[in-house]
Amino acid sequence: MRSIPALLGLVLAACGSIRRPVDPRVAPDPRPRPSMDVARRSRPAEQPALACVDHPLVSAWERRMRTRRELADDTRETMARGAPYLPQLRQLVVDAGLPAGLALLPAVESGFEPRARGRHGELGLWQLRPATARRFGLVVNSQRDDRTDPARSTRAAVRYLRFLHARFRDWPLALAAYNAGEGRINRALARQPHASFWELAASGRLPRKSQDYVPRFLAVVRLAEHVQACAPQPSAAQVRVAAAPPPPSSPARAAHETRSAQGTRRQAAPHCTPAFARKPDTGIALAAPPAL
Length: 292
Description:
By secondary structure, this protein is an all-alpha fold. It contains 14 helices and no strands. The chain has a domain at 4-18 and 50-114 and 152-230.
C-alpha cells in the first residue's frame, strides 16, 4: 500500500528516462500580440520551478490533500487514472521545453478522464473549448473531435500553455489565464499593473475558481516533485570536497564504516523515494496501479 505522495513520485519516476529530442509535431506558438502591455513585457522571464513556488495557499492545499479523507481519496483515484497517460504526456511537455510538472495539469482539469465534459463546452483531458482547440491546431467538428485524443490534445494544450507563458511571463498567471481566459487576466492586470497572481487573487480581481485552481495544481506538483526540484545545489568547493578520495584507514576502521553505512541505508530506505524524501502520511494508503 502506498501514500498519495509515494504514488505521485512513482508515476513521475516511471517517466524519468525521458529524452529531449525536438518534436516536429509541436508547431511554434503564435507570437505574443503587439499590444501586450509594458507590465507583462517587463516581468522577469526567469521563474522558480513549479514545485518550488512557495505560498501559504499552496501549502494549505497540500495539507488538505494529505489530511482530508474525501480530497485524499479523490486525489488517489485521479492519479491512478492518470498513470497510463502520464509517460506520454510528460514526454510531449518536456519535448516542448516546458516544465515537466505541467503534465499533471489534467489532474485538476479533468481528473484524467479523456472524455470529461465541462459546462461551457470544454472536453478532454485538458478541457479545451472548441475555439481554443481549433486555434491551436485541433479538428473539432461533428465527425471528429481531437480533444478526446490524449496525444493530439496534449500537443494543442502545450502550444497554448507556451503561448500563455510567453504572454504573461509567469507560470501562476499563465495557469490562471488557462483557467479563466486571457481576457480576464488582461483586465485584472490593466487595473493592477505589475501584480503577481497572488496579489491579483488577494485583491479579489480573479474568479474564486481561479484563485483555488492555481494553488491546488501547484500543490499536486509539489507533492510529486518538491524535494528533487527545490534541493539546494552544492557549491563548486563542496563538489570538489565530495569528490576527493577519503584518507586511508585501517582494515578494522574500514569494516566498521562499511557496517555503519549499510545500517544507515537500511534505516533511510523505508521513507525515501527519489521524488519524495519526506515521510508520507501513513494514514492514506494506496496500492500502486498495475501500469507502475
